[in-house]
Amino acid sequence: MITRLLAIVAALGLMLSCLPSRENRIVIGSKNFTEQLILGELIAQHIEAKNHLPVERRFYLAGTYICHQAILAGRIDIYPEYTGTALTAILKESPGGTRQEVYDRVKAEYEKRFKLEVGRPFGFNDTFAIEVRGEDARRLHLKTISQAAAYAPEWRAGFGYEFMERPDGFKGLAATYGLHFAGPPRIMDLGLLTRALKDKQVDLIAGNTTDGLIPALDLVILEDDRNYFPPYEAVPIVREPVLAKHPEIRDALQDLAGTISDEEMRQLNFAVDGEHRDAKQVVSEFLKKKGL
Are 54 and 25 in contact (CB under 8 A)? Predict the structure, then answer.
């Protein structure tokens, strides 16, 4: 029995010795929705191909706060974030400013406070989208959030957990537009919101402008006519010690800057959510199309 136990321990030791050390393994994280999965996979595949470094994927790490704590603790090395989210949810600063101004503020403060580098934007702006069913928008002639506020007392709203808590979320939106609903908003996972709206479980949701299911489900994005939401450009967040050890990673991330338009991100999201394709294959095809 002892001999057998020693053999198992020896085998486990051999297996562990074959794994790449944490020092040379790049750990990519992401939040828990499709777009983040795609961006995380995009970063992972390009680093593997260009830098020939072993990559570990730790995707679906809940929301913003979990990912931020994970990278501060060194449990992940890179994850995709959004400038408006970083500004309001992490830095606790008031929204406002152009895309460049918000990016510059976030980049400077992340380096100063957290020793994290904010890479160049991937190219698209995934701002919050206040959505209603297309049939309701056409029937009521709705184009803006201000117009929808008049009907909100008869409606049920649906929001993600994080949207209810963050400073650029529900409370500020309701105050800015005078929104009052028939009851407390239903709180659910982000991946369930669009289906809940389509199935008439709720009447208004806060989704994302790059959600590929918006046109497929005949949903309409209402214009943020009071400019409540700041810009949300997608950017890679990287631990500075990782860049110091592997400066080549910076070049790989630079390759991805400006490569994804709003429409291309919608198409990528739809390929996974709407066509139920494998995210790894979708990303691989996209990188080849871009010559990366």
Answer: yes
- What are the tokens at 128? 């919050």
- Report the candidate in 151, 33, 145 with the shortest Cα–Cα distance to residue 82: 33
pTM: 0.82
Look up the CATH number of the domain holding residue 34: 3.40.190.10
Residue where one domain finishes, among candidates 164, 195, 222:
222
Q: Same structural domain for residues 121 and 136? A: no
Q: Indicate whether 15 pLDDT > 50.
A: no
Lowest pLDDT segment from 112-116, 135-139, 186-190, 264-268: 186-190
Q: Which two tokens stand for residue 69?
A: 């704590």
> Is 2 contained in some domain?
no
Statement to judge: residues 121 and 42 lie in one domain: yes
What is d(CA 268, CA 281) in angstroms, rounded to the nearest whole number?
11
What are the start-end ranges of the E strands in 116-245?
A: 116-118, 128-133, 157-159, 186-187, 204-208, 219-222, 234-239
Question: In angstroms, what is the C-alpha Rg of the chain?
Answer: 21
Same domain flag for 179 and 245: no
Strand, coil or helix: 76: coil
Amino acid at 79: Y
